[in-house]
Write a structure and sequence with these properties.
There is one protein chain. Helices cover 48% and strands 0% of the residues. It contains 9 helices and no strands. The chain has helices at residues 3-7, 14-36, 57-64, 74-78, 84-103, 115-128, 130-134, 145-151, 190-198.
């Protein structure tokens, strides 16, 4: 008897058929879930990908009416830009966390950034506004502003940038935020639009 025969199950074995069937089920469910959750859209820099998850509508809506809309998309602020591997690793890690929380309906009433996300956003604020942070010509505008620019998070002072008062808006459990009026295309997923029309 060959070594290969000892490792592989007999071609006529019932276990071989069951294993193939189970692998096909797992692959089929994985492909179905990837299609339904629009996984490919999350690899883009399109801000509308964030609205695939309906609880993000108020946050998207507030960004749409901010000055940042002209200069920065969601990924410009919320993912690292030091290298492409780190960017997509962070997006995948954060995305899987969000997907699991929203699938389990365990999202909090008010969404706040976790510590890793806070570090990324802070680094991106500084990356885009490095001139305001580092140049001494801005010293003296506000008392103590020089140390405030480096010793604490930017949003401890600039609380309403770029999301306005989005932390005062409850999640979709209690509120469906109105869509921007200047938006030509709808950002509401088809399944949620049907729910809205039925009510």
């Amino acid at each position: 008897m060959r070594v290969q025969d000892k490792i592989l199950p007999n071609k006529k074995s019932r276990w071989r058929s069951i294993a193939i069937f189970m692998i096909a089920i797992v692959l089929g469910l994985g492909l179905f879930m990837a299609k339904e959750s629009e996984v490919v859209s999350y690899m883009s820099d399109d801000p509308q990908a964030c609205v695939n998850c309906h609880v993000m509508t108020p946050v998207y809506n507030s960004w749409m009416h901010s000055s940042h809309r002209e200069w920065a998309s969601c990924n410009d602020c919320h993912v690292p830009h030091d290298n492409i591997v780190n960017k997509y690793y962070f997006k995948a890690k954060d995305g899987l966390y969000h997907a699991s929380i929203f699938t389990l309906r365990a999202e909090p009433d008010v969404i706040f950034m976790r510590e890793a996300s806070q570090e990324v956003v802070q680094n991106n604020c500084i990356r885009c506004h490095v001139q305001q942070v580092t140049q001494t010509k801005y010293d003296g505008w506000i008392e103590g502003h020089a140390s405030a620019r480096t010793d604490r998070q930017c949003w401890s002072c600039h609380r309403e940038i770029p999301h306005g008062r989005s932390h005062g808006i409850s999640t979709i459990k209690y509120n469906i935020a109105p869509l921007p009026t200047d938006q030509v295309e709808t950002v509401v997923p088809d399944w949620l639009q049907k729910e809205i029309e039925e009510k």
